[in-house]
Design brief:
Layout (H helix, E strand, L loop, with lengths): L1 H21 L1 E4 L2 E4 L7 E4 L1 H7 L5 H4 L7 E5 L9 E5 L11 E4 L2 E2 L10 E7 L2 H4 L10 E6 L7 E11 L11 H14 L8 H11 L12 H4 L5 H5 L3 E13 L3 E12 L8 E13 L4 E14 L4 H7 L10 E2 L2 E3 L13 H5 L2 E21 L2 E20 L4 E3 L4 E4 L8 E24 L3 E24 L14 E25 L3 E2 L1
Parallel strand pairs: 6-9, 16-19
Antiparallel strand pairs: 1-2, 3-8, 4-5, 6-7, 8-9, 10-11, 11-12, 12-13, 13-14, 14-17, 15-16, 17-18, 18-21, 19-20, 21-22, 22-23, 23-24
Helix pairs in contact: 5-6
């Protein structure tokens, strides 16, 4: 019985291996059977990955899916530029990012709705990347989106998740303990302690009755604070991610239309992001020899401008002896011996108002003409447009010593308030012509020849200005300011023309060139 069972298992495994080797893998400007690959190419069934685990950004979701691919999350802030990807390590002192192609055209993987992705191929070595030239020196990631097939179907996927910070540092939040340890650290290097013992004793006494009030009617927990800044800065929240798609097709027509919406409020106030995505893929066999289609994609990202980078940096430069916010005002160091530079992190987070918007539109048309068996001509034309809009202005706030009611740092006066804007944009087009010829001679000699031409052009422009002097922070358009502080702008363009080709030969599927 053991021998029979083992034999059956081996037979099943052999069938699975055969099927795997017959699988088609997306490579540069085409597809190949896994059995015929001569380069290092990894194929990821991203559709199954998206079903099995939540995907916030496509770049971060690639972690752990392929050997030699290192994924590092660059920032925990919602709406950041996604993860940093390195294929087989860092290959240059300059930009080491891999080249990313979506349906054969360059783009950002994090602008693609994860639910629209069918497969991802990762080209890792020089042999597999060479067809793309020097820009592929750090590897290539090829993303293929769904086309739709079969009966018309409507698919909805939704996720509501609860987010909270993890691995919080155990910070000192008892101010009396903090003062004693600061004194001890000074004594250890031969210096006098910074805080008087009477101040330390007063804090311990008031902590026994936190809800009591002082002579000015201020609660003890405000006048004699013991602030845990991590609890004040980091919050909990619900992330909404919803996707709706319509797909289907006949023998001659295939289509996919999808909409996506994501709302991530962030773990820190005023750092949230909302993102909207849409895609239409259409392909039709117009005649027996002509296939044509179009792919249209767009996304818009609306991001809050809470100054998290400042707040996170100043987290190590504050003390428990500052109360965050009370009655709409921000706290100031309460102990007389405390440094005036001890930061109020909430003020650092909220000292600027404004908004950031990013919009992408990408449209492509393509055709494929079959002249004869094995000989095809593929034409692609792609147009992309990108807009970036950022506006920010001063949010004036007081810093108050709550125990006495004294304003220690007055809000910025209108004549010193500033407003600024920056706009960036670019547009580009890509034109490709690709000839493919595949034939088999005498049953054993398989030959595939590909030749292509690509033309690419891109134009960038930007403008920015910063002005000072406002009537009120609620009237913050640039024309309301009185003094120009800075103004600038740039423009540049770049273009390439490329010729490329590939020859594949195999003898009986065993010997490959």
């Amino acid at each position: 019985m053991k021998i029979t069972s083992t034999t059956q298992t081996l037979n099943i495994k052999m069938v699975e291996d055969s099927e795997t080797l017959d699988e088609v893998v997306v490579v540069g400007y085409g597809v190949q059977k896994k059995a015929n690959l001569t380069g290092a190419v990894a194929s990821v069934d991203f559709e199954e990955q998206a079903k099995s685990r939540p995907v916030t950004t496509v770049s971060a979701a690639l972690a752990g899916l392929s050997a030699g691919v290192q994924v590092m999350q660059s920032s925990g802030q919602p709406g950041s530029d996604g993860a940093t990807i390195r294929i087989r390590g860092v290959g240059t002192l300059n930009n080491a990012d891999p080249l990313v192609l979506i349906d054969g055209l360059e783009g950002s993987m994090d602008n693609v709705n994860a639910q629209d992705i069918e497969t991802i191929s990762i080209l890792k070595d020089a042999a597999s990347c060479a067809i793309y030239g020097s820009r592929a020196a750090n590897g290539v990631i090829l993303i293929t989106t769904k086309k739709g097939k079969g009966r018309i179907s409507i698919n909805y996927s939704g996720r509501v998740s609860y987010a909270q910070p993890t691995r919080i540092i155990d910070m000192v939040s008892n101010y009396a303990d903090y003062m004693e340890w600061i004194n001890e650290s000074g004594e250890n290097i031969g210096q006098k302690g910074n805080f008087d013992q009477t101040t330390i004793d007063l804090w311990r006494e008031k902590a026994k009755d936190p809800n009591g009030v002082n002579e000015n009617g201020v609660p003890n927990y405000v006048a004699y604070p013991n602030t845990d800044w991590q609890k004040e800065i980091f919050k909990h929240g619900l992330i909404n991610d919803h996707n709706l798609s319509l797909s289907g097709g006949t023998d001659k027509t295939r289509f996919l239309a999808s909409l996506g919406y994501m709302d991530n409020p962030g773990l820190v106030d005023r750092t949230g992001v909302k993102q909207y995505k849409m895609r239409v893929n259409l392909e039709a066999d117009v005649t027996k020899w002509l296939t044509a289609g179009a792919r249209i994609y767009g996304d818009m990202k609306d991001q809050e401008v809470g100054n998290f980078s400042n707040a996170n940096n100043y987290l190590r430069q504050t003390t428990p002896g500052v109360y965050p916010e009370w009655n709409g005002q921000y706290g100031y160091p309460e102990a007389p011996e405390e440094s005036a530079t001890a930061n109020n992190l909430l003020q650092k987070l909220n000292d600027t108002n404004g908004s950031t918007k990013k919009t992408n539109v990408n449209a492509a048309v393509f055709s494929k003409i079959t002249f004869m068996k094995g000989l095809t001509w593929t034409f692609n034309f792609n147009y992309k447009r990108y807009w970036y809009e950022n506006r920010s202005w001063t949010h004036a706030t007081d810093q108050v010593k709550f125990s006495t009611g004294e304003v220690k740092s007055a809000a910025t006066k209108p004549d010193m308030m500033s407003t600024s804007f920056s706009n960036e944009g670019n547009w580009s087009y890509t034109l490709e012509n690709i000839i493919n010829y595949n034939t088999t001679i005498a049953r054993d000699h398989n030959i595939a020849v590909m030749g292509g031409y690509q033309e690419w052009y891109k134009y960038w422009n930007s403008s920015n200005a910063s002005l000072q002097g406002l009537i009120d922070e609620n009237i913050n358009v640039p024309s309301s300011a009185t003094e120009m502080k800075s103004i600038g702008g740039t423009a540049k363009d770049r273009a390439t023309r490329s010729y490329f080709g590939r020859l594949n030969y195999d003898y009986k599927g065993r010997y490959l060139i």
